[in-house]
Please model this.
Amino acid sequence: GAGVSQTPSNKVTEKGKYVELRCDPISGHTALYWYRQSLGQGPEFLIYFQGTGAADDSGLPNDRFFAVRPEGSVSTLKIQRTERGDSAVYLCASSPAGRAVDYTSSTSTDTQYFGPGTRLTVL
Amino acid sequence: AQSVSQHNHHVILSEAASLELGCNYSYGGTVNLFWYVQYPGQHLQLLLKYFSGDPLVKGIKGFEAEFIKSKFSFNLRKPSVQWSDTAEYFCAVTRNTPLVFGKGTRLSVIA
Model:
């Protein structure tokens, strides 16, 4: 498919367990973003990759959260010692070039395309 | 920090009514503005975006939004809604920062 894909679509785990959430961005997109959406809220930024490196991880709530993108394509969000408060929908987005926006062009490179999300439930 | 305010939490309209959803942001510099829509059971989709130029932006499905810099606003409009427009609508802002989303407005269109 041409869109962003995320697996699993649903994940139920017990408090204290470790989980991994996977994101496959649109082919060729260099920028990849993770967001978290709690019930009744808009998505909140977690981390942004430009290629293989984390360009901005200021949104990660604490050191239990970690993400990697070793080959500059697929990314994995890892949550250690899960807590009930981690329950949310985790969204992944990709964009062609990230934050290098050409303000003179109507075909901006910075539009983010979202995947369907992974619904994480921590019991 | 940047913030985005969407004034209406839930809007209920009859079919063919006109729609306007408010969005205000806090950042004072040059910004990129977006409206995303999330239909029931589907993922976030881009409705329209503003980067520069004409402040009246037209998007898909008959939606448009107007950027008013002096009011820090980017309100979404549609002259005549349809039942299929029932969805959650999110305004988002960025300027070389991550997207900052509003809390969303749930639109229910009734026959």
